Structure formats: C-alpha cells, structure tokens
C-alpha cells in the first residue's frame, strides 16, 4: 500500500489566491502584526514567512521586534500598542517566549477581536462551547486538509499524540464537536498502552516534537497519519513520523510540505475573519 500524500503547499496556494481575491474585492486595508522576542532562527524564519504570505495576498505588515532580554511588561506594552493601532487588523505573539515570561498572562492581554492565532482565553472558551470564534491556525489547517482529502471523520477513532495549547488540546475539542463528530483520544506523557491506542486508531495526529517517533511497524495498514511535529536535527528539520509510514498509511501528511503551509495560510484566513467581525 502506498499512501495518498497530502500536498499542503498546493492547498495553501489555492487558499491564498482565494484570500487575495476576497481582499481585493472588499477594498479593505488589512494589517497583520507580529511580536517577535529574540532572534531564534526558527522563529525569525517563521515570522518572515508570515510577512511574505501577507505581501502575496495584499495584507500590510506591522513588525514589532524585541530583544531576548525584553521583560514581560515590555512585551505586554507592545501588545497594548497593537491593540490600539487602527492599522492592525489582528496580530500574533510568536512563540516560544523566554522562559522568564508567563505565556498565558501575555496571551491574555491580546484583544480577543485582534487575536489572529485564536489563543486568547475567550476564543479558546468559545471553541469549547462550539460558538463562532477564531480557531487556532494549526487545528484549523488539519481539519481543512482532512476534509479536502475526503477523510471520513464521522465516528472515526482519532488519536492525537501531544496535548500542547496550540495544537493538541484545541484540536481535540475541534474534532469532537458535533459538526465533526470524531471520537478523540488525547495522548500525553502519562498515557498507558500508547502502542495499543496507535494500533486501534483510524487517524493518528502526531504533535510532540520527537523526531521520527512514529515508526511503520507501529501503525496498522490503512491508517490516516498527520505529522505536525518539528524537531531540528543535524540533518535539518524532521517531523514526528518516519516517512516510511507512508508505505502503510492510506493518507499521509508529511513534514515538511503538509500541515505547515496550511497553518500559515490559515493565519491569513483568520485575519480576514477578524476584519469581518
């Protein structure tokens, strides 16, 4: 068996073209703000990529770069400035932040109506209540790709490995909503019999940052496998899933080229949603 490979780059390009057309027809002037603390190469590259995406679809960029020594109050002040900036439709605080910073306290300072990442407590609460809200970009990207590739989610046994606040936890809520109706298991470091759960799952979504953790012999033939993890190694960036899993899966989203490009495109989609509120 050879898996159908999810082409996130192609899907992202289609979505960005749709967004560019919508912005042009609306005659709105949108601005995406980013707050970057420090000079971590991965974070710098990711933020630069977001602003390239903005330029491609006609969204203005508002860049706020702070030194790694920036205090929590300095970061909050930068957030307040963007909250008040009429040219800023929405913005994100690039994670991770320095260890001395209380991430949840910082994210709570974002105006929910400008929360392009969907990580403010109010927006996450609305997700739990299945109310209309800004959905975190990666979970939104994963659901979009699963639907595009006609993966059956109704009653499907979905195993999410990793309970982070940006992917695992919000994704588990999203996929268990009545509009999706998957049966979701959220695995983490204390999960027992993980190997049994993996074999029993119809869909596996790996988001733990453990290089090539998921091996071909661990999954049953025909499983849908989505790789969300990213680990920096001497050989470059790799995902949580051994690429050879594609030989056993029915549908496989690799890293790179799968969820990542759509996650960035969903940030633009969220910005358009904010402009329409």
Task: Kindly describe this structure.
This protein has helices at about 10-25, 40-55, 70-85, 105, 120-130, 135-150, 170-175, 195-200, 260-275; strands spanning about 5, 30-35, 60-65, 90-95, 155-160, 185, 205, 225, 230-235, 235-240, 250-255. It has about 280 residues and is an alpha/beta fold. The protein is built from nine helices and eleven strands. The strands form three sheets. The protein has a six-stranded parallel beta sheet with strand order 1-11-8-7-5-6. The chain has a three-stranded parallel beta sheet with strand order 3-2-4, sandwiched between helices. It has two domains: about 30-110, Leucine Dehydrogenase, chain A, domain 1 (Rossmann fold); about 135-260, Rossmann fold (3-Layer(aba) Sandwich), CATH 3.40.50.
Give the termini separation.
46 Å
Give the name of the CATH architecture of the largest domain. 3-Layer(aba) Sandwich
Tally the structural domains: 2
Sheet with the most strands, sense and barrel status = 6 strands, parallel
Strands ordered across the widest β-sheet = 1-11-8-7-5-6
Radius of gyration of CA atoms, rounded to a whole number: 19 Å
From N to C, what is the helix and strand string?
EHEHEHEHHHEHEHEEEEEH
CATH homologous superfamily title of the largest domain: NAD(P)-binding Rossmann-like Domain
Which structural class should the secondary elements be placed in? Answer: alpha/beta
Question: Count of helices?
Answer: 9
Unreliable residue stretches? none
Helix content: 25-40%
Give the amount of beta strand, in percent: 15-25%
Mean pLDDT: 96
Determine and state the CATH class of the largest domain. Alpha Beta
How many beta-strand runs?
A: 11
InterPro entries: Aminoacid_DH-like_N_sf, NAD(P)-bd_dom_sf, THF_DH/CycHdrlase, THF_DH/CycHdrlase_cat_dom, THF_DH/CycHdrlase_CS, THF_DH/CycHdrlase_NAD-bd_dom
Pfam families: THF_DHG_CYH, THF_DHG_CYH_C
Domain Tetrahydrofolate dehydrogenase/cyclohydrolase catalytic: 6-117
Keywords: Hydrolase, Multifunctional enzyme, NADP, One-carbon metabolism, Oxidoreductase
